[in-house]
Specification:
heterodimer; A: alpha/beta; 9-stranded mixed sheet; 11 helices; 12 strands; 32% helix; globular; disordered N terminus; B: 452 residues; mainly alpha; two-stranded antiparallel sheet; 24 helices
């Protein structure tokens, strides 16, 4: 079978493709295994997503009892099976589910849940439960440390957003960068491609090549804003803009294997209904647009999206039309390579842990599966031990 | 010291503009015409002496520099805005009479790479920074001891959670791996034992404390030495390790030499010299800067410059320090180029070298070049007058002459190929001022500008 890379490297059509320069640029350092072409995009739902109103057990009478004002009527839920459905705003996610491109892992958490945003996020990002071992090096940073080549200018991971690079991406050696917008790749005026290097010295040649490549890539990146027709429109949200940039970077193929974005606002202590619906709608639509875009570019077999939040929320709604910090919640794994469907049973609404849903899948099992089955890495050096994998990939 | 003979000009390696500019760019963020001409007229060892004793910059140093810098620095630290503390450091680099000390403080920031993202206290970050500056040229032991007894590093490496019976190995591990010995010169067992020795080191307010109740007073064996070691004992043991002089030799040569210039034999000899001189950093830096090797052709213009050097070099060359751009804007560019001061990417610091040239960083460098020349770094916008840049040196009668003269000012030489390439890039422009400014932008976007 002719792989996409092989096709691009050999085809005469190469010169017409707007993202070729960066693609070719990595040919020296390009890993040979096709598995190295695989990409993970992490979406962090910041603030603690109310999983119970995201993946809804509408068939369970206890649901309505705990959520007198926040409950979503069974008639409005986007049904995934006879008892479980998605929030009505999650049209895009429902379509992905139908197409078998979305796996929803229910009841994800970790033992002795921590209900502090900071500490729980730290646990998820470090991939470690013990706060004493939260050393500022994250699970994906450790993963990237493993594949990082010393002296390489390839960004092992890219955080797209205005904030600092999240702990999850920080490694001891790995090269993580952050970008906020397209403007980070916009030249203020066209840069001239200069001579072939007059000096035969290695470093000088390297710099000359790198500048040429970058100026060319930036030029084409900017051109691509108009020259690549976006057949799949993106919504106007910040998350969608960030994912659009991720898509562009993937198309430019600079060798980055992990991208990370976040969507904030999930800390819905009061007047939750409208805000939560808007957030979920935005999340769902952005993911759908992103995956459609990649499908159009025939890159969808290389990309998997993983979405998580630092915790779910209390089962019983509070007196302010909101919900307080809870524990277990669903995770989303989306993309063409994903084995779609509901994974693991919805947590019981009766057998609670201090008012919170009990976890039955450790989030590190999801990490394990992604690291091993998707990125092809040795998870033990990253997670400290082997976790029972899930069936997430086709 | 057969590999470290002092440099004396020869016909093969003359004391010329290329070597004068090399000294200034590689070590102290560049030079202006008058400094280049002064050094060209004297001899290399005298020029190096000026760098070492803080008299290389004679002009344009504010008389009350230290007071102004301190006012900027303390208000930046109080503000909690890391950009302002970054701007403070760039102000120091640009205006101090002793730029070598700032260059070395940058190097030590990379060695003891500590990030405010975790420390989250700019006063502590500034406190550490001042230690790096104060001891920049002292014995390494003085520097290491004081940095290790200072809150920023302790918080960064989790010393407060390292207690008897509940070890956190972070500080112990990085002290061995990164600060002192390097991989391969210690075992996992040494790390565990060293962590026990460090138990009880903690932070109260903004000062170091050793808390006896949290300290594991038992017997430890670290690097084959057995005793009831404390944290101070650990530092003493580390400072006595032969591997340390090698690590330090690597750090210093890595800062001042291009790839593959320093041979294995030269590095070993340098490490022995450092050991014989009690790890005296000043001895090490002086030995490097005075050496034949430092001025050898292979070391000229062959190292990718760090963002701080890239940003400051044209400011010094174009003598803009009297009419300075906003240091906050400079700090923003330096960050975009990948050198977020006070926020190194991880405890290993910045990889440096070729890794500086990420896609985003190269775009930022190209945009900085234009912003600088078009005067967008200051408010109100004040485009550079290209005739003034080289006005008294070369008649800017033509674009080509101006490119040639500016290239010599910036890079110490002008290759015909560079001049041609820039001239072609500029093309024929209706306005001379615009054409000259475009030529300056193109020059700063050349490979030569990314190297020093």
């Amino acid at each position: 079978m002719v792989t996409r890379r092989h096709f691009l490297q050999t085809s005469a059509i190469v010169s017409l493709s707007p993202w070729i320069p960066m693609f070719l640029s990595r040919s020296i350092a390009a890993p040979n295994s096709t598995r190295d072409g695989r990409i993970l995009v992490v979406v962090q739902l910041d603030g603690g997503n109310d999983g119970l109103n995201t993946v809804i057990p509408f068939g369970d009478e206890n649901y309505a009892r705990h959520r007198p004002t926040l409950k979503i009527a069974a008639s409005k839920v986007r049904k995934l099976d006879k008892t479980i459905g998605l929030h009505p705003q999650m049209k895009g996610a429902a379509k992905l589910f139908e197409a078998g491109r979305l796996a929803i892992v229910q009841g994800v958490g970790y033992p002795n849940p921590n209900r502090s945003h900071f500490e729980s996020m730290s646990i998820w990002q470090h991939g470690r439960l013990d706060p004493a071992r939260h050393d500022g090096i994250g699970w994906l940073g450790r993963a990237a440390d493993g594949w990082h080549r010393p002296g390489s200018s390839v960004s092992d991971s890219v955080f797209v957003g205005p904030e600092a690079i999240p702990v999850a991406l920080r490694g001891t050696r790995a090269n993580a960068i952050s970008m906020d917008s397209d403007s980070d790749l916009q030249l203020s005026s066209p840069a001239t491609r200069h001579r072939g290097s007059a000096n035969s010295d290695d470093v000088s040649n390297y710099v000359g090549r790198t500048l040429d490549r970058t100026y060319e890539a930036a030029r084409r990146f900017n051109e691509s804003q108009t020259s690549i027709p976006v057949d799949t429109p993106y919504p106007g949200t910040e998350l969608a803009n960030h994912l659009k940039l991720v898509s562009r970077l993937i198309k430019m193929d600079g060798g980055t294997r992990v991208f990370y974005v976040s969507q904030s606002g999930y800390d819905t202590h009061s007047a939750q209904a409208e805000q939560h619906g808007r957030l979920l709608g935005g999340f769902s639509a952005a993911i759908e647009a992103f995956l459609n875009d990649l499908r159009q570019a025939r890159l969808d077999d290389r990309v998997v999206v993983m979405a998580f939040s630092e915790f779910g929320r209390r089962v019983q709604e509070n007196a302010s039309g909101g919900t307080d910090h809870g524990a277990a919640a669903p995770m989303f794994i989306a993309g063409k390579p994903v084995h779609g469907g509901l994974i693991n049973a919805h947590p019981s609404l009766v057998d609670l842990d201090a008012g919170d849903l009990k976890m039955s899948v450790d989030f590190r099992q999801v990490y394990e599966t992604i690291l091993t089955d998707w990125l092809g890495l040795n998870s033990v050096s990253i997670l400290g031990k082997k976790f029972a994998p899930l069936k997430l990939f086709a | 010291m057969s590999h470290w003979l002092p440099y004396h000009p020869t016909s093969d390696a003359p004391w010329n503009m290329g070597r004068v500019v090399h000294l200034h760019r590689r070590v102290i963020f560049g030079a202006c015409w008058s400094e280049i001409e002064r050094d060209l007229a004297s001899d290399p060892q005298t020029a190096v002496t000026r760098v070492l004793d803080g008299s290389a910059r004679q002009e344009r140093v504010p008389a009350d520099f230290e007071q102004i810098a301190e006012a900027i620095g303390s208000s930046a630290a109080d503000s909690g805005d890391v950009a302002r503390l970054q701007a403070w450091w760039l102000y120091r680099c640009l205006n101090t009479s002793d730029p070598l000390r700032e260059r070395l403080a940058l190097m030590w920031h990379n060695h003891f790479a500590t990030s405010n993202l975790k420390v989250n206290d700019l006063r502590l970050m500034k406190q550490q920074n001042e230690i790096l500056r104060k001891h920049a040229l002292d014995r390494f032991g003085d520097l290491f001891r004081e940095v290790a007894h200072n809150p920023a590093l302790l918080i960064w490496l989790d010393a407060p959670s390292n207690r008897a019976g509940q070890a956190n190995e972070n500080l112990a591990r990085e002290s061995m791996e990164l600060f002192a010995l390097g991989v391969g010169h210690f075992t996992e067992k040494d790390v565990k034992e060293a962590a026990r020795a460090l138990t009880g080191w903690n932070v109260r307010g903004d000062t170091f404390v050793a808390i006896p109740e949290m300290h594991d007073a038992g017997v430890k064996t670290i690097l084959d030495r057995t005793g009831t070691w404390s944290g101070d004992d650990l530092l003493r043991i580390l400072l006595e390790q032969p591997a340390l002089s090698r690590r330090l030799a690597w750090r210093l040569t890595n800062e001042f030499f291009a790839e593959n210039v320093v041979s294995e034999a030269a590095l070993s000899e340098f490490a022995r010299g450092l050991a014989e001189h009690q790890l005296d950093i000043r001895w090490g830096v002086e030995t490097i800067l005075r050496s034949e090797l430092f001025f050898s052709s292979a070391n000229l213009g062959t190292r990718v410059n760090d963002p701080v050097s890239f940003v400051l070099m044209p400011l010094r060359a174009f003598e803009l320090s009297n009419n300075p751009p906003s240091t906050l804007v400079l700090a923003d560019y330096v960050g975009r180029m990948g050198q977020e001061l006070f926020c190194p990417p991880n405890v290993g610091g910045w990889s440096g070298g070729r890794a500086w040239l990420s896609t985003r960083a190269v775009v930022a460098r190209a945009n900085y070049a234009e912003a600088l020349v078009e005067g967008r770094l200051s408010s109100p916008v004040r485009p550079i007058d290209p005739t003034k840049v080289v006005g008294h040196r070369a008649a800017a009668s033509s674009v080509t002459n101006m490119i040639r003269a500016t290239s010599e000012l910036l890079f110490g030489e002008s290759h015909d190929a560079v001049v041609r390439s820039v001239a072609e890039g500029v093309g024929t422009q209706p306005s001379t001022g615009r054409a000259l400014r475009n030529a300056l932008v193109e020059l700063l976007r050349q490979p030569e500008a990314q190297l020093h």
